[in-house]
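Quick review question:
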């Protein structure tokens, strides 16, 4: 890579060092967060234990809600780093950095080096993008593969058709990561870009035979293999988990159509003030000219808009779903920041700082006040986490206005980029707070101390998905199916999914049983079981552990 300015190379080096440190420092320091991290660490562990890398299993029964690539990647990380929290989060963190790098190359191609630096710096320090990179779920890998796919499409269209190989490879791997949206979303973006630009030649250009062959070679083998081994896979995965899940409220994840608007505003912190200007600069001129001019802005805007609207119209919504919109927004926002730095009158910079202050100052005040008014966690526990974030955001806001008054716009932008990393470092500590609230690690450690060879471990009315991962043992589930219902119906051994009567028989049988219950179920369970032989072995904040004999 050739940089004509030594300062640009130094900025890039600093950006790389800060990003790698931010994303990997302390990555495995807290327990797996329930339920997702437990699930996405346990499935690869079971793959490695059983040697079956075709049929995903959770608690040793079929689990077809997601394709296989993320499991394979996590299994590889477990082989390299051990079965621990770091290996579970390794690939989301690494692929988040890959998304930042892809964003840098795309922005550099479209708008030059300075915009590329700003864009990648903004993306690296967007709150929700960073937060999701620290969690073992499929959304960050999906975002990376879509980013690679769309970057490959743009380079293939504007530079050399060979880049379409990246487009097809990214789409194939996105398909293997989270299903049909891996091809629906890139296809929708390209369709609307073709409509607005009236470039009908895109069809002929993008139908690149080597890319199509690569797509088929990457994506089809596992789908064929899993369908051959499991005749019930096709309906459950493609019909139920795609069409019915999108169109209905079957999974209980319904949110109103505007749900992602506040998520987006919060997710772009501390850069949200750039969003109005970035969208305004992309939309009016591009749509009026139908993309004949400023095609780059139109492409980035459609990349954002198609994905955002797709998930907003869905009946099933979760916060991480919109992670793929952050790379194109980061480029648009980086472009705007570069322009405002170059303005002499400072009007654009002032608008950015005003919007940012309107959004950030109430959030800072909430961080200071909320610990004293919530009933779940004491102020003494929360303040050590909320105060550093509030201080870092205050420094970010104050520095912006200070350098604005000095008319040092370039220094303003650089200082905000550096302070944004301070904001994320301060926020990163919050994950350790949730270690005791959302992780089964402490519970599993306590159960492991009680366990003896041959003990049965059962959980009533719930399923902490990290327990099998930490205990390396299958769990008997009592009065619970949840998302395991599909696989549980095919379980031939009735021992693993039981009701209250079967639990009573098990409890009074010959085997030693360790039973995990919710604190609220204590009275009901003691009435069901014989209170004279049951004893409370230990108690955590949410769970009680009983044993039928010492």
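Suggested answer, residue by residue:
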């Amino acid at each position: 890579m050739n940089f004509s300015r030594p300062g640009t190379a130094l900025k890039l080096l600093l950006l790389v060092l800060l990003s790698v440190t931010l994303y990997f420092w302390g990555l495995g320091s807290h327990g797996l967060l329930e339920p997702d991290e437990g699930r996405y660490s346990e499935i690869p562990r079971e793959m490695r234990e059983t040697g079956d890398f075709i049929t995903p299993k959770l608690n040793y029964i079929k689990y077809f809600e997601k394709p296989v690539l993320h499991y394979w990647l996590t299994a590889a990380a477990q082989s390299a780093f051990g079965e621990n929290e770091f290996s579970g989060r390794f690939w989301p963190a690494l692929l988040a950095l890959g998304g930042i790098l892809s964003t840098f190359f795309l922005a550099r191609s479209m708008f030059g080096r300075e915009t590329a630096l700003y864009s990648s710096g903004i993306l690296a320090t967007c709150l929700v993008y960073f937060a999701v990179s620290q969690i073992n779920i499929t959304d960050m890998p999906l975002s990376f593969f879509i980013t690679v796919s769309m970057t490959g499409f743009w380079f293939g269209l504007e530079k050399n058709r060979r880049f379409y190989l990246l487009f097809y490879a990214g789409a194939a791997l996105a398909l293997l990561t989270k299903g049909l949206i891996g091809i629906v979303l890139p296809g929708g973006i390209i369709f609307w870009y073709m409509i607005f630009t009236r470039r009908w030649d895109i069809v002929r250009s993008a139908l690149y035979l080597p890319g199509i062959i690569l797509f088929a070679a990457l994506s089809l083998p596992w789908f064929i293999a899993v369908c051959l081994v499991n005749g019930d896979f096709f309906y459950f995965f493609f019909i139920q988990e795609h069409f019915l899940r999108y169109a209905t409220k079957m999974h209980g994840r319904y949110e109103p159509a505007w749900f992602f608007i506040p998520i987006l505003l919060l997710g772009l912190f501390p850069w949200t003030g750039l969003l109005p200007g970035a969208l305004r600069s992309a939309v009016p001129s591009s749509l009026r000219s139908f993309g004949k001019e400023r095609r780059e802005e139109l492409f980035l805007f459609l990349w954002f808009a198609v994905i955002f609207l797709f998930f907003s119209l869905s009946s099933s919504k979760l916060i991480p779903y919109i992670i793929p919109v952050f790379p194109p927004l980061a480029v648009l926002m980086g472009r705007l920041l570069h322009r405002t730095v170059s303005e002499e009158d400072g009007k654009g910079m002032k608008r950015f700082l005003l919007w940012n202050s309107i959004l950030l100052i109430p959030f800072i005040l909430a961080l200071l006040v909320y610990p004293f008014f919530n009933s779940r966690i004491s102020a003494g526990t929360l303040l050590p986490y909320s105060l550093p974030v509030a201080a870092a955001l205050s420094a970010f806001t104050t520095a912006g206005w200070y350098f604005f008054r000095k008319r040092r716009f370039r220094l303003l932008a650089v200082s905000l980029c550096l302070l944004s990393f301070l904001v994320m470092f301060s926020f990163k500590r919050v994950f350790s707070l949730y270690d005791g609230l959302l992780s089964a690690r402490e519970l599993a450690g306590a159960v492991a101390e009680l366990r003896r060879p041959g003990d049965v471990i059962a959980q009533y009315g719930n399923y902490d998905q990290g327990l099998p991962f930490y205990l390396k043992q299958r769990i008997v589930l009592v009065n619970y199916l949840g998302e395991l219902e599909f696989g549980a119906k095919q379980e031939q051994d009735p021992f693993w999914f039981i009701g209250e009567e079967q639990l009573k028989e098990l409890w009074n049988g010959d085997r030693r049983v360790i039973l995990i219950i919710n604190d609220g179920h204590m009275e009901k369970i003691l009435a069901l079981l014989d209170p004279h032989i049951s004893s409370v072995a230990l108690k955590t904040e949410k769970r009680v552990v009983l044993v039928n004999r010492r």
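Why it works: Residues 345-439 form one domain. The two ends are 67 Å apart (CA to CA).
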